[in-house]
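Quick question: what would this complex look like in 3D?
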Amino acid sequence: AQSVTQLGSHVSVSEGALVLLRCNYSSSVPPYLFWYVQYPNQGLQLLLKYTSAATLVKGINGFEAEFKKSETSFHLTKPSAHMSDAAEYFCAVSGGSNYKLTFGKGTLLTVNP
Amino acid sequence: DADVTQTPRNRITKTGKRIMLECSQTKGHDRMYWYRQDPGLGLRLIYYSFDVKDINKGEISDGYSVSRQAQAKFSLSLESAIPNQTALYFCATSDTGTSGKSYNEQFFGPGTRLTVL
């Protein structure tokens, strides 16, 4: 069984501030972890993924995430928010070769000027 | 050109009508999926298919059916639409992987916004 919890359905930051979106997972097997972004009226786009290589994963648009097994976390960060980062972000977990990708409920990021 | 396309992009229909949502992909992937997205609920899996002859129910398949017409095409049908099927529907694809090991990274279409009145 696997599950994802995203803490905070809505996060608001100022332009230039640190972005931190939290994701905790549960998985009975070593997980693969993903962050997807959804811009308004668009589909989901992969930001980054953890596939059991380096624990610090760098993605597109300056985002990165760190896999912490002891904390069962995969938080998404960006040092300096830009207005164009405003979107909904989804964390997802896949259990190895398991077909299933389980999504969190999403976090809406608002960036204030 | 988009790798995963969905038609229509928007659809308004009435209760009781039959409606079909279509998905096509040019990625050459063997696996295809249908999800629905509702505000505050994330994405929930409706059906998935590992190949043309393999169709499986997801967590919320009641009221839906699917057809995998070819490796590249996967359609979702609502036989008799009801208002609580109003949602954003996404098609996705993934690749089994050359070694048989799949991270199950999925690639999404742009979505179909369905409204049932």
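Answer marked as accepted. The interface with chain A takes residues 4, 31, 40-43, 45, 48, 50, 90, 92, 100-111 of chain B (CB under 8 Å).
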